[in-house]
Write a structure and sequence with these properties.
The complex is a heterotrimer of chains A (135), B (283) and C (118). Chain B has helices at 6-29, 39-59, 71-86, 91-99, 102-112, 117-160, 182-199, 216-231, 243-252, 265-275; strands at residues 165-168, 171-177, 203-210, 235-239, 260-262. Chain B has 283 residues and is of the alpha/beta class. Chain B has a 5-stranded mixed beta sheet with strand order 1-2-3-4-5, with helices on both faces. The chains are: A alpha+beta (135), B alpha/beta (283), C alpha/beta (118). Chains A and C meet through helix 1, helix 2 and helix 4 of A and helix 2 and helix 3 of C.
Chain lengths: 135, 283, 118
């Protein structure tokens, strides 16, 4: 059973917030003792998802939690927006490198960079993506 | 329920007796491991444990071992587990540290409640519950600590078995031995790429002579390494390609993306030298 | 209004990406770069990312776009200085940046361009 040792929230309203969000995630990963490569993977995943929330989702929040599960340490990030939602998840999740808005790549890419990935979306209500990276 | 257990009063009154008896128990508990940890260290650990144990019990929160009141005890047990694992103890041998505290506590309780057997039964039950929980927690942390050690050793073994060798100025070679799984590939990529930066090399020769089979997954891992190298501006040559591997690659429809392949490391080296502008002449 | 400086190195242009870029800055860079390639008749563009600790799909797309635009203007682009963690992450992301040439550092990038244009 993972325990949350600390948590916080950041707005994701504009481009600047994406930058701030990345920096915050870098600090979290550093604090949890992630290797440089693992830090980079988490920060990159966060960048993709934050960008989705701001640009496709019309803005939202990033909720972060530092996890402790016995000897294991991790970081959980929840990206939530109140945008249009994703109508066709399967299509969105197939690699679409050349797709115009890059939404597909953001999701599948982020998924490959983390240990746990969960996507919840409702058309017209919004989208929530939860990712966890363990040390 | 948040009331002070009799353990609190017990420890206050009979601390030294309990501690002495406990140390005796510990000395005989796991005979195979007696002597591995120095007597002085065991004494110190018992002392430290009783200190944090006392504080936790005094707080009155005995229902929830996950709570803040027991944080220090948990940390102590985690640290103890780590040390014991490194000393070669199994999980149950480590937990004996906690379980051998039962007898001394029971004896002390009995002495305190000579006139009240009912009271003794209730208190003894409380002590058993508490120590069982702590003992189980210790077993859990010891198992986890053991897993951590094994993982770390595996990691180190992986790193040792994928040494990056500098063949010449600007040419690195990586003899890959054994199966190529994703954990291995990660390590390979990390150490190889870093070496490229450190030595400012231009060409990396991946020798797969020692890789038994190449299936789709292995091919994927190889390609990942090749791509990462290319992104950093280094070239890649794959050597040690056996006939079966060539067949597999074609059958699988794997696209080697223009990477040159050579049958032997020697051939790969000759090509690499030429590519970076060296000509070898015999004297 | 901030913009990323573009340095001139003979026939080549050098851009050093350092800042956490946002959309506007990226678009401005593409604009400035294409204008400069045209104005100076540059034959090569070096994009130095040695200071970037992260490259996501947006950045990757931007780099690929710059490379494409430069090619149409008859200039070659070389991406230099990618850090190992970034390379590993990009590969995991599934971004291989095909069509973008790479070199270990600026010096090697210049050598590459010189050889290609010889």
């Amino acid at each position: 059973m993972a325990i949350v040792s600390s948590a916080g929230e950041l707005p994701l309203k504009n481009q600047n917030d994406i930058v701030l969000g990345r920096q915050a995630v870098r600090r979290l990963a550093l604090e949890q003792g992630f290797s440089l490569v693992d830090q980079t993977k988490l920060v990159t995943a966060a960048s993709e998802l934050a960008r989705n929330a701001v640009i496709y989702g019309g803005g939202g929040e990033l909720k972060w939690e530092m996890l402790v599960d016995g000897a294991r340490r991790g970081v959980r990030l929840v990206f939530e927006d109140h945008g249009p939602g994703i109508p066709d998840i399967e299509k969105a999740m197939t690699d679409g490198w050349t797709s115009g808005n890059g939404l597909g790549l953001g999701l599948t890419g982020a998924r490959r960079l983390v240990n746990e990935f969960e996507l919840q979306t409702t058309v017209g209500v919004g989208t929530r993506v939860t990712i966890i990276r363990w040390k | 329920m948040s009331e002070k257990l009799p353990i609190s009063a017990l420890l206050q009154k009979r601390r030294s007796q309990i501690q002495a008896q406990w140390l005796e128990q510990l000395a005989t508990a796991s005979s195979s491991k007696s002597g591995v940890v120095a007597r002085e260290d065991v004494r110190r650990q018992a002392d430290d444990f009783l200190k944090v144990f006392n504080q936790a019990v005094d707080s009155g929160h005995v229902a929830d071992l996950n709570g803040a009141a027991w944080a220090d005890v948990r940390h102590f047990l985690e640290e103890l587990s780590r040390q014991r694992v490194l000393a070669g103890f199994a999980a149950d041998e480590t937990a004996a540290f906690i379980f051998s505290l039962k007898r001394p506590l029971f004896d002390a309780l009995r002495q305190e409640s000579l006139s009240d057997p009912q009271r003794f039964a209730e208190d003894a039950w409380g002590v058993t519950m508490l120590l069982d929980q702590l003992g189980l927690y210790t077993v859990k942390t010891a198992q986890r600590a053991r897993e951590e050690v094994i993982n770390r050793q595996q990691q180190e073994l992986l790193e040792l078995s994928t040494p990056v060798v500098k063949l010449w100025d600007g040419i690195l070679a990586l003899p890959m031995i054994g199966t190529l799984d994703s954990a291995r590939t990660q390590i390979v990529m990390e150490s190889l790429l870093q070496k490229i930066v450190d030595t400012e090399s231009q060409i990396a020769i991946l020798d797969i002579t020692g890789v038994p089979t190449v299936d789709t997954l292995v091919a994927q891992h190889l390609l990942k390494t090749v791509t990462a190298l290319r992104l950093m501006g280094a070239e890649c040559i794959i050597s040690g390609v056996r006939p079966q591997i060539a067949q597999t690659i074609v059958h699988l429809g794997v696209d080697l993306q223009g990477v040159t392949t050579k049958a032997s490391l020697a051939d790969a080296l000759a090509l690499a030298m030429k590519r970076i502008g060296f000509a070898v002449t015999r004297q | 209004m901030d913009r990323i400086p573009i340095l001139r190195m003979g026939d080549f242009l050098l851009v050093t990406l350092q800042v956490d870029m946002h959309d506007q800055l990226a678009l401005r860079l593409q604009d400035d770069l294409t204008n400069m390639i045209h104005a100076k008749g540059a034959k090569g563009v070096l994009i130095d990312i040695s200071a970037l600790e992260m490259v996501d799909s947006f950045m990757g797309r931007m780099i690929a776009d710059i490379s494409g635009m430069a090619r149409i203007l008859d200039a070659r682009t070389v991406l230099v200085g990618m850090q190992p963690p970034v390379a590993i992450t990009l590969v995991e992301l599934g971004l291989s940046l095909p069509g973008v040439e790479t070199a270990l550092n600026v010096e090697r990038g210049v050598q590459l361009l010189n050889r290609a244009l010889a």
